TrEMBL record:
Coiled coil: none
Keywords, sorted A to Z: Hydrolase
NCBIfam families: HAD-SF-IIB
GO MF term (any one): hydrolase activity
Protein name per its UniProtKB record: HAD family hydrolase
InterPro entries on file: HAD-like_sf, HAD-SF_hydro_IIB, HAD_sf
Lineage of the organism: Bacteria, Bacillati, Actinomycetota, Coriobacteriia, Coriobacteriales
E.C. no: 3.1.3.-
Length: 276
């Protein structure tokens, strides 16, 4: 794997897509100092910064408040794409499929279901004990007595795995059961995410770039884990964070400094310098 300093043609980059947890955000969930200014500078240079995350749209816009008209959002692992306030794409899961996923999960006691709508996240009242943790990712939570037959627009079904066994449970249970009908992936050790088939961050980035008239050769992407794979493989300038597991190395071209070393900011500064 090449070092980030070996990347060339940075002046051609027109889109920068960036995962959040363990990528842009340090382990303490903080952003690099001065990141809003970098996003504005990218915008002024004709480069679109996109927050690409499993987090819902309303959480991401809250994290980048005041920058909505200067950047893009690839939320819910690509199930919603918004660019400078314009909805480019959204993908809603059939209510019967949501019901099937809920019954499958609860019937096997496999984790804590969180059903992600466009404007809120639905969680059972009996799981309120995880509220403080959930609100790091879901800025708006609606607690309900039951998840049966929700009357809402749902674009992602997510399982929280308190025992941090998301990767094996995803591979051994959910991918075999639903992988032919849905996009099934892990967002780190505690999250299993399911969206409509073909929905992922890579497809979201491709849709954003098509909207902007940008080729894959002129796109950059930063990530660290499974739900970043397609995005890293799609973008020509793909950066894997130094804190990522070794198994992720085949999916990216360049190694960036770790999230705690503010690797995204380091590379973005190089991109900005190339546009001056």
């Amino acid at each position: 794997m090449l070092d980030f300093e070996e990347d060339t043609r940075l002046s051609d980059i027109r889109v920068v897509a960036c995962d959040m947890d363990c990528t842009l955000l340090a382990d303490d969930k903080s952003m690099p100092e001065g990141m809003p200014g970098r996003i504005e500078a990218l915008n002024d240079a004709g480069v679109t910064f996109a927050a690409a995350s499993g987090r819902p749209l309303y959480t991401l816009t809250g994290m980048f408040a005041g920058l909505e008209d200067k950047m893009a959002f690839i939320s819910d692992n690509g199930a919603a794409v918004v660019c400078r306030g314009e909805v480019v794409f959204k993908s809603l899961i059939d209510p019967q499929v949501v019901q099937e996923l809920t019954e499958f999960t609860l019937g096997r006691n496999l984790g804590i279901p969180t059903v992600c709508g466009l404007n809120t996240c639905y969680v059972r009242s009996c799981d309120r004990q995880y509220d403080e943790f959930f609100r790091t990712f879901y800025y708006d939570i609606t607690y309900v007595d039951s998840l049966d037959h929700l009357d809402a627009e749902i674009n992602k079904y997510t399982l929280f795995m308190p025992e941090a066994n998301a990767v094996p449970v995803c591979a051994e249970v959910f991918s075999p059961a639903f992988g032919e009908r849905l996009s099934v992936t892990c967002g780190g050790a505690v999250w299993i995410d399911m969206m409509n088939y073909g929905v992922d961050k890579g497809a979201g980035l491709a849709r954003l770039c098509e909207h902007l008239g940008v080729a894959a050769e002129d796109a950059a992407a930063f990530g660290d884990t499974d739900n970043d794979v397609q995005m890293l493989e799609w973008a020509h300038h793909s950066y894997l964070m130094a804190n990522a597991e070794k198994r992720m190395e085949p999916h990216a071209r360049f190694r960036a400094p770790s999230n705690n070393d503010r690797g995204v900011a380091v590379v973005v500064d190089r991109i900005l310098a190339s546009h001056r």
